[in-house]
Design goal:
The chain is an alpha/beta fold. It is built from 15 helices and 7 strands. It has a 5-stranded mixed sheet. Strands 1-7 form a two-stranded antiparallel sheet. Helix 2 crosses helix 4. The protein is globular. The N and C termini lie far apart (about 45 Å).
Length: about 290
């Protein structure tokens, strides 16, 4: 069992293995076939670079249900995304956003998984987000760094992630930060270039002004993601239909203690995996 503010990089347990088999076609035969075929596809494409050890390839094969061609297409979309937003993402390391991570509680991760064993990312994008201190670009960079670390958890690769967007106290400043450019970048990443299984997105405590934000996001959302987005307002009983209160903090009328930690507590964990992040940053199109 990993400490509360660390990744759990241990192999999947028997219960998770069964989920992987049922939902991801994860059998010894499919693993072997997927690894071999994906390795071959990468070997025959000198335009992109990804490490081809088993551990790295599994990151991309799992969300693609061990279809090597789909995993290869995902790698190409990731390469496209990284090229398109290279000004934002090239050589991005945890220390580049240390201040935003540690001094402004915008992005947090629950220390416990939910009742389905999924990681829960919490985004405080309401009144507590000081947009003069943390820009929307920085918010995205923090997301990106967290995802680079999260892909190392086999349990998370299989069970996926859930996002809670908390809009409590959302004002004009925060609403304005959700520009069309930011919305497009965030949704392009989530829908096309993120090798994690995003299971649900929960919008909570959103005031009326949220409609302005949503009208910007809506045009970019594909059908698959649309079906996974839920709006709860202040009705936590509605959220509890998706995440059991036994696994939620008091902040969301759950049975667990009120959240008393922030991104600052998680930062050393992200920093600890800097070598992996540096390696991950090298993936993508080969520089000519």
């Amino acid at each position: 069992m990993a400490p509360p503010f660390d990744l759990d990089t241990s192999p999947i347990n028997e219960e998770t293995r069964k989920i992987a088999e049922e939902e991801l076609r994860e059998t010894p035969e499919n693993i072997a076939k997927g690894l071999q075929e994906l390795r071959e596809l990468l070997k025959n494409d000198d335009t992109i670079y990804f490490k081809d050890d088993d551990e790295t390839l599994m990151i991309f094969l799992r969300p693609c249900k061990f279809y090597a061609k789909s995993a290869y297409e995902l790698m190409k979309r990731i390469s496209d995304f990284k090229l398109k937003y290279k000004d934002n993402l090239e050589n991005l390391m945890p220390e580049d956003e240390k201040q935003a991570f540690t001094e402004h509680n915008v992005v947090n991760v629950l220390t416990n998984r939910d009742h389905k064993g999924r990681r829960v990312l919490l985004v405080n994008c309401g009144g507590s987000w000081d947009t003069s201190k943390v820009t929307s670009d920085q918010l995205f960079r923090i997301f990106y760094l967290i995802h680079e670390a999260a892909v190392l958890e086999p349990e998370t690769q299989v069970r996926g992630v859930v996002v809670i967007m908390d809009f409590n106290g959302l004002g004009l400043k925060q609403a304005s930060a959700f520009s069309p450019a930011f919305s497009l970048k965030l949704l392009s990443f989530i829908q096309d270039a993120m090798p994690l299984r995003l299971k649900e997105v929960h919008m909570v405590k959103q005031p009326f002004i949220f409609n302005m934000v949503w009208s910007i996001f809506k045009p970019f959302i594909k059908e698959k993601l649309k079906k996974r987005i839920y709006f709860h307002g202040n009705k936590m009983a509605s959220l509890h239909k998706h995440i059991e209160p036994s696994h939620l903090p008091k902040d969301y009328d759950g049975a667990m203690p009120k959240i008393d930690y922030t991104g600052a507590d998680w930062y050393p964990c992200i920093e600890k995996y800097s070598d992996h992040i540096r390696t991950y940053n090298s993936f993508g199109y080969v520089k000519k």
